[in-house]
Amino acid sequence: MTKPGRNDPCYCGSGKKYKKCHMPIDQAAEREQRGWKEAGRFLRRDLLKFARDERFAEDFAKALPFYWDSLYDFDNAAEMSPAEALRFFDWFVFDYQPEEAPRLIEIYHAEKRADLSEQQQAVLDGWLTAAPADVYELTGYEGQLLHLRNFMTNETVAVFEPSGRGNVEIGELILTRLVPVQERLEFSADAAYLPAAEITDLADKLAAAQTADSETYPDATHEAFMRRHNHLLVHHALAEAKVQGRPPVARLDPNRPDKKVQTVTRKMKRLRR
């Protein structure tokens, strides 16, 4: 709906000028919506900053080759592209759990929550219990609203994504984490996707991993399984890129458009020396 001008009749049909009727209500709603958006934006930045703390340098060094199937390690971490670095740190914050210790998001929640605004606290509380990164099929879209189906459980969800579906076609897969912001779901970081030709045997790989996992965790939920094994999604995507003749990661691309090393990973290297 296009809002009327200040002195135009209000859209509600009251006969009053818009500025004397619904304009203050609409402006308050817009301020609140901006507040939620800024809360999410702040937490994404602050969690990244928190993950770079020297306390986590050893975990960073262990987690990096685990996530990237040894295509990145501590020595070449600074060669990750910006998108690769953000995806890794998203997983590192939300899903990586060394030796049953608390996840970084749990540590952040315990140490930082009291210093946040009410909206930031509300968003953080929702993120603390957010599901692990998972794989979803795009089944439909309406502008910025994407309709997704969980590839393993068939659960359907609607997700708000400002850039819309991007290059993803119906039936292709999105590798991402869904987090709540106010009353809607969003991607926690830039999502990766699998084109139709690269889905191949992903279902078989996940089924085999779940069967093996059930021997140790017979009562595990889907979310618990994915928290332990969602790195397999990345490994599958890397393997399929090789099959298709593409460099699986940015550092192996001789024509990569960005040559800038990542300060987030460079700092970790300094801390661990």
What does this structure look like?
Helices cover 44% and strands 13% of the residues. It has nine helices and seven strands, in the order αααααβββββββαααα. The longest helix has 29 residues, at 23-51. It has 273 residues and is of the alpha+beta class. The model has no long low-confidence stretch (mean pLDDT 92). Helix 1 crosses helix 5 (118-128). The strands form two sheets. It has a five-stranded antiparallel β-sheet. It starts with 22 loop residues before the first helix and ends with a helix.
TL;DR of this structure?
The protein is α+β, with helices and mostly antiparallel strands and 273 residues long. The protein contains nine helices and seven strands, in the order αααααβββββββαααα. A five-stranded antiparallel β-sheet has the order 3-2-1-4-7. Strands 5-6 form a two-stranded antiparallel sheet.
